[in-house]
Amino acid sequence: MQAVSTLKQLSEILKISVSTVSRALKNHPDISESTKKKVRELAAAMDYEPNKHAVFLRSKRSNVLGVMVPLLDNFFYDSFTAAVEEEARKSGYSLLIMQSSESKDIEAANLKLLKNNQIAGVFVAITGETDDISQFLKMQDQKVPVIFFDRVPDYEACNKICLADRKAAALAAHTLLQKKRKRVLALFGHPKLTISKKRFESFNEVVKQHAAVTAVVNRFPLSINEAKHETLKAFAGKNRPDAVFCMGDQLLIGAMQAIHELELSVPENVAVISISNGLIPTLYNPKITFVETSGFKLGKLAFKRMTECLKGSSFMQELTVESLLVEGGSL
Question: Is the pTM of this model over 0.85?
Fold first, then answer.
């Protein structure tokens, strides 16, 4: 078996110093282009790869980025993670993906494990229970970038990559009101989360300002089953909804399970609109009209911000991915 190439072997063959070889491979501006070309060509021919363990010992940081999400069985977080992984691979990073299971205790344990692995940075969507982000802030103080995404804390001095939550909810409300619906069941997520608060406030403000005669019943289910239960309960009452709004894909699945169980026709018996990552609304007939909030686009933007932080950017930013309406046949 051929021995693994080292910087010393490259330097001996090229008759230049080890430090010159190292800087050439890092594209250092002090090294001439001709030397860089010779070093890269020889490194490729000899299958040279950097000693990752040695790099880790020198920098005390691995080439691993952490991703922590509330639930793994969620297409939105799948899309986000796919985008981050795609960009990370291009930049020489790997991902360590962890699930908090909507528990702040598991979230804290996961964070400790990530710290013990000397990760280079972490992306996190917080749980509905999270009320203390001090451990995340300590990581930032230790020069380990933390990028909060989607579910972000109500705290200014941190990097947050968000969807256009207020605009998305407002767009959904305006679209629904154009259809003259009078009794709306609105399903939101965990009431403590900033994302739920923003969407709840924006949706109800639009209805109040533009359609005072439209009644909105707001509910806050935390799962597919709870969304199904709330929908069945609403249709069992005297004032049955003529429209259902869902603030996310999981809630849409639950609502549609109830609508199918009740054998209701969409949109003849009930109109449906959702905020969505994009896939779930296309699985129904007719396709559900939705406001796109792309996890993939969010992941791309989050990685861009992480790269800036890894390169030394120290100021905090809140960046937003805009939303757009995708019309189906459900209204």
Answer: no
